[in-house]
Amino acid sequence: MFKNFTARFSLISMVILMSSTNNFATESTDTNTNMNINTNINTSINTKKEKIERKFIGTFYITKTFSNLHQHPSPYATSVHTLACGQSVKLYTTNGAQKESLPEEWVFAEGENTFGYLQKKMLSAEKPDCFQNKYPKFFDGLNLNITEIYYWGKLHDQYIAGKTKVK
Amino acid sequence: MYIKNIKDMSAFYQLLLLLLVLLLLCVIPAKTSLASNSTSNSNIAASTAPTHADNDELIDFSSIKQVIKNDMLENVVVKKNEAILDVRNEKLKKKTKLYDFPSRENFWSLISEYWLVKNAQSLKWDFEKPDYGIDEAVKALFEGLGHYEVRFKLLVINDISPTHFSLPADSGEYIFILSLPFIRTMDLSKLEISLLILEDFYRANFEYFKQYANDKEIDDFFGKNFYNKKFDFEKINKILKSYTYFINEKGFSFPQQYDVTKKVSEVIRSNPNLWKTYNNLLYKIDTLIKNNGEYKSYNKIYPSPEMQLRWLKTSKL
Fold first, then answer.
1. Is residue B204 part of a domain?
2. Contact check, Cβ <8 Å, B153/A160
3. Which of A20, A143, A166 shows the shortest C-beta gap to B28?
4. In this structure, are B157 and B219 located in the same domain?
5. Is B289 within the bounds of a domain?
6. What is the pLDDT of residue A39?
């Protein structure tokens, strides 16, 4: 009888305890799963980075109203992303053969998780005083669409800019 | 009371088991409710602070005014209300600042670039081209004539019109348009191109186009704030339309052309090479517009190369 009692009691109490802690168990396994996914992604990106062997130089800021990240170091190459004035980009050195072919006025950069090439004239080490930030409601009122933003980035690629020297 | 037989014993233990189960079921919800109570308590604690984001209402203590007075807490009430007012004013100031209108000095570059963006297809400036070295030639000419700290942006277009133009820009900045077919047809040298841009540089300084394109209703907004004032963004579209009309149809007047030619003449007269090159440039343009039907509208915008040559020849300038 006692054996029956203890067996039944222990069984029922275990069931109750397991049901009460079940939620915590599932949450913890979910987070563990998420962490596993994240580490997998990170390792895959890191693996890609390791293959390319780029070294981080520093963080710079876009100085033009809009600037395009290009697939190749040419103002006529396909644009992979458009960045706005004031946005930060991470600059990387290029390795081996790529370094030799990279024109002097171009850098390899990452902006908003997109890698590409930017002209140095678009960048500044300090965050600039952008028109969009000084007059946000006025700029928003222009209601730019995606095409206009893209072309605005292209415009700065196409400009032949110059400055006469200081007196 | 003694349990006499086996049956009574099992019933007793079953009852005990049931009680234990019930106890367990009560304990677990109690723990969770304790946890939620503690978070709600912390929320209450946070919300009592007068600087909380949601709590920007002035506190009304009128119902307990006498109590506060007796406890000499009036100063505390005043300070709390002042703190809330300061937070409210700060928020309003930040919100108002978002509605700043650009000043006259930094309005035009944006509008000119906006016009270029909107007319990208018709102007055909998005095309691959070699480096002509025009920027170095322009820099050399400008520096030679004493124009220092001039920031310029030159946009080469792949269309016959506009042939060349200087768009309104911010103070100290210049935006030039140059037609590649135009300069190729006349086979202009870098110096001739630079002199053409010099002409546009002086036109920009005279602000003829800026005065035409400016909407007088916008004058009231320059450098001010339009929070609680309605700014009609259709005015910007109106300015852009006036850009298109002036550049393609209206152009400059004879007196304006005379002033520009006179200015260029004054600056380059002492340099025989520049003087000769400028005359040669005007002659090439005059020949082009007389012989090439595609450029017959050039006189509408820049009247007239023939008159400019006469003004130079008669040495009136």
1. yes
2. yes
3. A20
4. yes
5. yes
6. 36
Contact flag A136-B153 (C-beta cutoff 8 Å): no
**Which pLDDT score is estimated for A6?**
57
User: Cβ contacts (< 8 Å) between B112 and chain A: which residues?
Assistant: none
Residue with tokens 């297809």: B121
Average pLDDT, rounded, for chain B: 85
B203 and B66 together in one domain = no
Domain limits for position B79: 62-97
Record the pTM: 0.74
Query: For testing the chain B interface, which of A164, A165, A166, A167 should be mutated: the one with the most B CBs within 10 Å?
Result: A164
Same domain membership, residue B148 and residue B277: yes
Distance from CA of B64 to the nearest CA of A (A): 44
Place of tokens 């579209």: B237
Domain end marker among B97, B121, B140: B97
* B135 within 8 A of A162, measured Cβ to Cβ: yes
**Residues B132 and B155 occupy one common structural domain:** yes
Best mutation target, A10, A82, A138, A154, to test chain B (most B CBs within 10 A): A138
Angstrom distance (rounded) from CA B213 to CA B235:
11
B172 with B82, same domain: the answer is no
Taking only the tens place, the pLDDT of each residue in B213-242 is: 888 888 888 989 998 888 889 999 999 999
The residue written with tokens 């991470």 in the block is A90
| Chain B partners within 8 Å of A164 (Cβ) | 139, 142-143, 147-150
With a CB cutoff of 8 Å and minimum separation 6, the contacts of A54 are A92, A93, A94, A95, A108
Closest by Cα among A154, A23, A62, A118 to B155: A154
Q: What's the pLDDT band for B34 if we cut at 50, 70, 90?
A: very low
Residues of chain A with C-beta less than 8 angstroms from the C-beta of B25: 16
Say how many domains are in chain B.
2
Tell me the fold of A55-158: SH3 type barrels. (2.30.30)
Tell me the per-residue pLDDT of B83-128, one tens digit each, with 9 for 90 and over: 999 999 999 999 999 999 999 989 999 999 999 999 999 999 999 9
Query: Band of the pLDDT at B65, cuts 50, 70, 90?
Result: confident
Give the C-alpha separation, B7 to B39, whole Å: 50
- The partner residue sitting opposite B117, judged by closest CB among A9, A20, A148, is A148
Query: Per residue in A63-92, pLDDT tens?
Result: 999 999 999 999 999 999 999 999 999 999
* Start-to-end C-alpha separation, chain B: 133
Sheet architecture: strand order including B173-179: A160-163, B151-157, B173-179, B164-167
Alpha-carbon distance of A166 to B105, in angstroms, equals: 21
pLDDT tens digit sequence for A87-114: 999 999 876 555 556 888 999 999 999 9
Domain residue ranges in chain A: 1-52, 55-158
Q: Which of B99, B149, B153, B226 to mutate to test the interface with A (most CBs of A within 10 A)?
A: B153
